[in-house]
Amino acid sequence: MFTTRITKKDVENLGVNLKGARVGLAVPTYMKNINSIEDLKK
């Protein structure tokens, strides 16, 4: 197995990609009983 180790000096911060973007859960409308992450366990 090959593993690459990334150190802080290998990463360049390019700044904000999408201003005002939000992270969230998107569920297709045909999945009627899924309204939260907890529902995915069922």
From TrEMBL:
<protein>
    <submittedName>
        <fullName>Glycine betaine-binding protein</fullName>
    </submittedName>
</protein>
<dbReference type="InterPro" id="IPR007210">
    <property type="entry name" value="ABC_Gly_betaine_transp_sub-bd"/>
</dbReference>
<dbReference type="Pfam" id="PF04069">
    <property type="entry name" value="OpuAC"/>
</dbReference>
<feature type="domain" description="ABC-type glycine betaine transport system substrate-binding">
    <location>
        <begin position="8"/>
        <end position="42"/>
    </location>
</feature>
<dbReference type="GO" id="GO:0043190">
    <property type="term" value="C:ATP-binding cassette (ABC) transporter complex"/>
</dbReference>
<dbReference type="GO" id="GO:0022857">
    <property type="term" value="F:transmembrane transporter activity"/>
</dbReference>
